[in-house]
DNA sequence: AGATCATGCGTGACCGCACACGCAGATAAA
DNA sequence: TTTATCTGCGTGTGCGGTCACGCATGATCT
């Protein structure tokens, strides 16, 4: 492990000079600069992060722009827990985060959160963004100054200068769901139940599911949409009606974390157990119905890991100047009654 | 964040004295000792690990006692990758490991490895042990000096003073395997194929599998043992014979990483696809057969995480003096053709 | 030629902790 | 009382960086 002093000695200069070269600060003659850089490359110098963080006064602040934690059945609490874990490990390295949340069903709320970020931009050294509202997010990042790096989490927006994307393969997870459905069911009537409002992600899952299950002509697949914005009573009423209209229904695929709401309806109509239910994400309510067997499978894509990784990506880029993966696709976990107790997202 | 200096000021002593109190080194009067400790507790002082590691000259050496990586179809390469990752993150904190491997089917080899450790005990600050050979391991750790902490990985030995155990719930994973089998198969003849020699773990998985599937009287379950120590030709011969004797066979459960060997036989006998095959661990050969569909499910229990965690447990205990969980049970992952490409162990 | 200024570089004070050294004052031995 | 020993504690240096300060040069100006 090389040190600044060693480099300085080899180059016949002082540590101050080496420091100036490495940080492009102050004034250094061309010759000395070359000489130092040569040695730095030769011995493959890596600064000691401990020493750096110790002497550094600056605190690095990362902004986190995500939906409010209690939306999507507390889904966003899961990535947050990963973010908190990363923060806990990195606080000694002078890393802190500033949270900006928005209502993912309100463009205005998102806009407001963006403005809050923009007004505190000079304090921010990086951004974690969940671009759930894709068009608005695209606009937002396009207005961001070049100097501020950002990573996407959960959803992706094509062709932008983002540092990295950490998320899931939604289409393939839909395929997986279809495979699981075919495992429990040899044939029959299946519906895809989209709970409105939906986003890009959810549609992708649906596409994957349809793509896969349509290749099997033992199944008839249809799709229904239920609005969840309305009151829970009406939601129940509507979904009950769907159940009653489909007495021969054998399977339901819910492409979102709201699976538990469908599970509830199933239980209330005494159809729990006779209908295969496959959904997404290990939020508390879903866990409950998975354990009782009303939900057959949950697909989870390491939400905590996504949060954790997003902070680390920024850390590696901003503090360590290391290169980070442009795209990180997290594992697709299959959760059942029998392994859910051991799961760590 | 409090510092030594602040404590010193509050207690009207010097940093040297505070240091002496915190490390129980040198001589301190009872009164000063009390006074300092009081303040330390009041402000909840946590030493700055960066500064500590920076000033510390000592390198912490952890011994790792595991089977040779190329055994069990390269299984042990997986925990090793996690160990390497932890090492990479912790090398700045002066952590290093020293590897001691043994042939898990040779008591002599294990004994030899233990002796190597014993002869370098004074250089070691902790031990990661995979107690695959349970009795021999029990004897070994009982002879270990009290001063050296150790963690178990993969397998557990009851009633010992180990710092922590990081591993899997084998029984429950057998239950899970049985559930998966029943998902693919409604009824029929299933065999459990133990590949000798077996260990505690494998038997536990078998017990879990039997326990679960015996509750379903649509299945007939039997168990066969095949010795793998003998040549591959004889292995194939024997397992082929088993297949031929059981033309009505519908499912095979292999409670170890050797699943791919059975897969190979299935392919050679043209039974791939008509027999449900469930096994363990994502080693390369298994991945291959999972992707082609010969293996239906693999159960994996985050081997890399196990290795990673084991080093971190020691680190937290030895360097940070933090308390660590006595038992960490890793998740039980279900791997199929459709999610295996995304898996990170 | 002397004053002025820009350039290139060395020095030293931190960051928070570990640890060796050594100095007072109390106590014991002579 | 003098000397030796022990006890309790303060001080200083170093770990590997960051960064402000300021000192020599040589170039430019008047």
What are the SSEs and their pairings?
2 copies of one chain form a homodimer.
Chain A: H1 4-11, H2 15-23, H3 30-42, H4 49-55, E1 60-67, H5 77-90, E2 95-102, H6 107-119, E3 126-129, H7 134-143, E4 150-154, E5 164-167, H8 170-184, E6 188-196, H9 200-213, E7 219-227, H10 232-245, E8 249-253, H11 259-268, E9 276-280, H12 284-292, E10 297-300, H13 303-318, E11 327-329, E12 333-335
Parallel strand pairs in A: 1-2, 1-3, 3-4, 4-5, 5-11, 6-7, 6-8, 8-9, 9-10
Antiparallel strand pairs in A: 10-12
The structure holds a DNA duplex (30 and 30 nucleotides).
Task: Describe what you observe in this structure.
2 copies of one chain form a homodimer. Chain A is α/β, with parallel strands linked by helices. Chain A folds into 3 domains: 4-47, Orthogonal Bundle (434 Repressor (Amino-terminal Domain)), CATH 1.10.260; 60-168 and 303-331, Rossmann fold (3-Layer(aba) Sandwich); 170-300, Rossmann fold (3-Layer(aba) Sandwich), CATH 3.40.50.2300. In chain A, 44% of the residues lie in helices and 19% in strands. The first copy, chain A, contains 13 helices and 12 strands. Chain A has helices at 4-11, 15-23, 30-42, 49-55, 77-90, 107-119, 134-143, 170-184, 200-213, 232-245, 259-268, 284-292, 303-318, and strands spanning 60-67, 95-102, 126-129, 150-154, 164-167, 188-196, 219-227, 249-253, 276-280, 297-300, 327-329, 333-335. In chain A, the strands form 2 sheets. In chain A, strands 2-1-3-4-5-11 form a 6-stranded parallel sheet, sandwiched between helices. In chain A, strands 7-6-8-9-10-12 form a 6-stranded mixed sheet, with helices on both faces. In chain A, helix 9 links the parallel strand 6 and strand 7 (219-227). Chain A is elongated and about 85 Å long. The two termini of chain A are 36 Å apart. Chains A and B meet through helix 4 and helix 8 of A and helix 4 and helix 8 of B. The structure holds a DNA duplex (30 and 30 nucleotides).
């Amino acid at each position: 492990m090389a040190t600044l002093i060693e480099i300085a000695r080899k180059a016949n200069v002082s540590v101050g000079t080496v420091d100036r070269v490495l940080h492009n600060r102050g004034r250094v003659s061309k010759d000395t600069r070359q000489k130092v850089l040569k040695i730095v490359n030769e011995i493959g110098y890596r600064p000691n992060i401990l020493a750096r963080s110790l002497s550094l006064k600056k605190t690095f602040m990362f902004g986190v722009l995500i939906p409010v934690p209690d939306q999507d059945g507390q889904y966003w609490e899961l990535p947050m827990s990963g973010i908190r874990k990363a923060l806990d490990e990195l606080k000694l390295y002078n890393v802190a985060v500033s949270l900006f949340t928005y209502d993912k069903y309100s463009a205005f709320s998102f806009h407001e959160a963006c403005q809050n970020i923009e007004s505190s931009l000079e304090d921010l050294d990086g951004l974690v963004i969940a671009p759930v509202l894709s068009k608005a997010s695209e606009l937002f990042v396009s207005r961001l100054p070049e100097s501020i790096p950002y990573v996407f989490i959960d959803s992706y927006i094509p062709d932008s200068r983002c540092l990295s994307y950490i998320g899931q393969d939604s289409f393939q997870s839909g395929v997986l769901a279809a495979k699981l459905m075919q495992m429990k069911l040899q044939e029959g009537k299946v519906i895809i139940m989209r709970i409105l409002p939906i986003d890009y992600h959810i549609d992708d899952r649906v596409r994957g599911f349809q793509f896969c299950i349509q290749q099997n002509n033992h199944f008839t697949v249809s799709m229904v949409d239920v609005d969840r914005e309305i009151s829970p009573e009406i939601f129940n009423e509507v979904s009950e009606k769907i159940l009653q209209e489909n007495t021969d229904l054998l399977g339901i695929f819910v492409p979102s974390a709201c699976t538990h709401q469908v599970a509830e309806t199933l239980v209330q109509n005494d159809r729990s157990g006779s209908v295969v239910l496959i959904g997404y994400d290990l939020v508390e309510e879903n866990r409950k119905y998975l354990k009782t067997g009303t939900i057959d499978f949950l697909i989870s894509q390491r939400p905590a890991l996504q949060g954790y990784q997003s902070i680390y990506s920024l850390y590696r880029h901003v503090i360590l100047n290391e290169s980070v993966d442009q795209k990180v696709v997290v594992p697709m976990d299959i959760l059942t009654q029998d392994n859910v107790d051991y799961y760590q997202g």
